[in-house]
Design brief:
Two copies of one chain form a homodimer. Helices cover 43% and strands 17% of the residues of chain A. The first copy, chain A, contains ten helices and ten strands.
Chain lengths: 271, 271
């Protein structure tokens, strides 16, 4: 049982605060952690980073920046300010990467939102360079195109990366968002060719899905060929973590220690 | 107020049986009707067709065939048999077209399902030819890729049409399923070039969407640029109906006469 490439997002075990999560993950032999920003509220971020390193947890990324599009100049500026704050938080924590959920504004043309996203990333790149923080554009499932992201396919994420053409700008590929895409293999191949596949997230798609946001499954519970997509990802030379990111009141309501065991089991059997 | 290209799907006014729907639609000056097969259960289908024509309602299509993929040979055969039945029903009704919701099987690779879909359509084509019935492949939103359709983009629908290369096989474009697609304009252009855009369905995408199946909005309630997509569609030379297809317990629970008025108003203002 090799858990040296297993990473958990703190949201996956939502009932656990950061202190409990780090002890539990480390105790379970999990190697990596992606910290959601809410878990750092009212904390000394640098100290949390130290505590994670003391437990030999590799800090994979800070989640999340993004939400660049807005209808007003003030809104655009506020988004950029928040993303700069996220970079400072990542630097304080010692996270080498920020996941970007790029954002969308209902009713605004997606092409306009995509332009604002590219402009927003360009605006924060100097600060990202200063701290050496990688920015991972995460394409979101098309069912989030109204208000969460105007970047809904790997092709669209690749296009933004092409446009920005910067070694700190890459892609976070999450099976939940991309599994259905007929063009997936080719687009993943391109991310490898361009050395921009920064992160790989896993979970599963439930049938039926009863909630657009919070009904993700544990790997093996749904219809996604996680192992097949992981093979595509690793064929590009990717050697990073398999990050388990599950939003599920069904799982959050259970005993989280038992859930952690189930995650490890699912990781071995289905990833 | 021109309603000569307005068509309603019987599902849109779900509380009305076919007899009531046809009287109400005709009374409201609506020109077209797409009949869902459930509305024909226990009816003399040829007689319903006559009643619709007596009311000067143009029968736009029969909805729906499809669901070709299956894990067993028996399942595949049953699907083809049901689609042949749909062709007989369309012929009896006097509908010139059947909408195909192509189907998917959770856990089966989408590429395999797409092969079964193409094979299934090929298998029913001789009977479709015999009756002169057009088959409209409807790409479904990627959130239905688990169990409703392995055809989730216009590009994927175009690929199946290319493969079958038959004048009776085309595409039903529904704004709900395709509005988010960065490649939409180009793919619609191709449907025009290949003379395969058979139908155009309208509704809206609600923010938030509270149910994956039954939370469609009336045009103008959500974020879809229906008028912009209609312009793309008509730029191909499409002169068919704008078919209103809304699944919504929220609307079904209201007075359906008032809903019909709201549909006409939304059609004028947002389509």
């Amino acid at each position: 049982m090799d858990f040296s490439r297993l990473c958990l997002h703190t949201i996956t075990t939502k009932p656990w605060a950061i202190e409990e999560a780090m002890d539990k993950y480390a105790g379970a032999g999990i190697a990596g952690i992606t910290v959601w920003r809410q878990w750092l509220a009212d904390r000394d971020i640098a100290k949390v980073g130290e505590q994670l390193r003391e437990r030999n947890l590799e800090i994979v990324s800070l989640c999340r920046g993004g939400f660049f599009p807005a209808k007003t100049a003030k809104g655009l500026e506020e988004a950029i300010a928040d993303n700069r704050l996220a970079i400072h938080e990542a630097a304080a924590l010692g996270a080498p990467m920020i996941v970007l959920v790029c954002g969308a504004v209902p009713g605004q043309p997606l092409s306009e939102s995509r332009k604002q996203i590219a402009d927003g990333i360009a605006a924060i790149l100097p600060l990202a360079e200063e701290h050496g923080i990688r920015l991972a554009v995460e394409p979101l499932h098309p069912m989030y195109a109204d208000d969460r992201s105007a970047v809904n396919t790997m092709a669209s994420a690749n296009a933004i990366c092409d446009q920005l053409d910067h070694p700190l700008v890459g892609i976070a590929a999450d099976v939940y968002h991309i599994w259905w895409d007929p063009d997936l293999a080719e687009q993943i191949r391109i991310t490898g060719e361009k050395k921009r596949l920064f992160a790989f997230h896993v979970c599963d798609w439930m049938t039926p899905t009863t909630d657009l946001l919070n009904d993700r499954g544990l790997m093996g519970e749904g219809c996604i060929d996680v192992r097949g997509i992981r093979a595509m990802v690793e064929a590009t030379g990717f050697t990073g973590f398999n990050e388990v990111e599950i939003f599920s009141p069904r799982w959050w309501s259970k005993n989280q220690d038992e859930f952690l065991d189930r995650i490890k089991q699912a990781y071995v059997e289905h990833c």
